[in-house]
Specification:
With 266 residues, the protein is α/β, with parallel strands linked by helices. The chain is built from 9 helices and 11 strands. The strands form 2 sheets. Strands 1, 2, 3, 6, 7, 8, 9, 10 and 11 form a 9-stranded mixed β-sheet that branches. A two-stranded antiparallel sheet has the order 4-5.
């Protein structure tokens, strides 16, 4: 059992308060399921900061049998490309990993390693949103990426696409990433718009080029790229922004912000 590492910090640690917090995140956002969604980009900051941006994506997700969540290994612990087979606990209950899907993944570069996930928040913070919307009707596949490399992202994406294509289950991929970190609001927005344009076109090469060109400090570059590779191979045509905001929109201090983007891939 993988216990919640950031409950009470990134999101409320009590079930009732967490449900209320999630209702607040979805406030004013209509539930509009889009069956064509293959993947998405969602932020992973504290719900106070990025919860409404995340909700703008989750409100459009269709029910799925499996949600593959590609996260960042911020901690640098364990395998650099790690999938978990554990059941994960949150204040809203337990979420089971889909062991059959994990077993079906080619193990070229993806290792089964629970250590890499023990303290990491980027995947964990997505689970309460899924539980809030879909209760116990889904399983998930958490993959942490701690190796910043374009070829690695491509291999992960290819492995995911091949595995998804062979299953008869409905699968949706989520890439967990915040965008620019600790820049003035105007600069963060300019940089993020520049790289998000490449995501909208599902152009992975342009995405990496623009990240490096502008030194964009998005933390989930490789999860996003892996998701794009897989989504394109599965027939996706474009990305659509559901919402963009910065921490400055919440706290009012625009001198040093973090950017948050919600994007669906169809």
């Amino acid at each position: 059992m993988r216990r919640a590492a950031v409950a009470g910090a990134f999101y409320e640690g009590d079930k009732d308060r967490l449900e209320e917090q999630l209702r607040d995140c979805f406030s004013g956002i209509p539930r509009e399921e889009n069956e064509n969604i293959i993947g998405a980009v969602v932020p992973h900051a504290g719900y106070l900061y990025s919860g409404s941006v995340a909700a703008s994506v989750y409100a459009k997700l269709p029910p799925a049998d499996i949600f593959v969540i590609l996260g960042v290994n911020h901690q640098g612990i364990g395998s650099p490309i790690a999938v978990s087979k554990d059941t994960w606990a949150t204040p809203l209950g337990d979420v089971e990993a889909d062991e059959a899907f994990v077993d079906a993944l080619p193990k070229r570069i993806i290792d089964v390693d629970e250590t890499a996930h023990r303290y990491e928040h980027s995947i964990e913070v997505q689970l309460p949103f899924l539980q809030f919307l879909f209760d116990k009707t889904f399983r998930f596949v958490p993959i942490g990426i701690g190796l910043p490399d374009e070829d690695t992202a491509r291999e992960i994406g290819e492995d995911l696409a091949d595995t998804i294509a062979k299953t008869d289950k409905k699968v949706v991929m989520l890439a967990s990433s915040d965008f620019t970190h600790y820049e003035p609001d105007r600069i963060a927005r300019e940089k993020d718009e520049y790289v998000i344009e490449a995501i909208k076109g599902l152009d992975v090469a342009k995405f990496y080029k623009r990240v490096y060109e502008r030194n964009v400090t998005a933390c989930g570059v490789d999860p996003i790229a892996a998701m794009m590779h897989a989504a394109k191979k599965l027939g996706a045509k474009e990305g659509k922004v559901t919402k963009y905001a910065t921490s400055g929109d919440i706290i009012g201090d625009r001198s040093s912000v973090v950017g948050y983007g919600g994007i669906i891939v169809v």
